[in-house]
Specification:
Number of helices: 3
Strand content: under 5%
Helix content: 40-55%
Structural class: mainly alpha
Number of strands: 0
Largest sheet: none
Shape: globular
């Protein structure tokens, strides 16, 4: 796990525990959001909003078809943070 991924994980773990009302030790990379942590659509929406605020990225509108575990969420956040910031086109 690289530094960026480690930093995201350290912040994401307690966030997921709070949003999904589970103990932090239940939040492991392979934990499935719905099947293992009991997330519902409201929890997922809250996690997206909190991630936007905490990590400065928006998960809304991203392709989340392959995102089912906490580790997948961390990977998605790391990849979004690695993208260059959108710059407006000069006219």
């Amino acid at each position: 796990m690289d530094v960026e991924h480690g930093d995201v994980w350290e912040a994401l773990r307690p966030l997921c525990a709070r949003v999904m009302s589970v103990p932090p030790e239940a939040v492991v990379p392979q934990a499935r959001l719905v099947a293992d942590l009991g997330a519902d659509s409201l929890d997922i929406t809250e996690l997206e909003a909190a991630s936007e605020e905490l990590f400065g990225v928006s998960l809304r509108g991203t392709d989340k078809r392959g995102v089912s575990t906490v580790g997948d969420v961390a990977d998605l956040i790391v990849s979004l943070r690695a993208r260059p910031a959108h710059t407006p086109v000069a006219r």
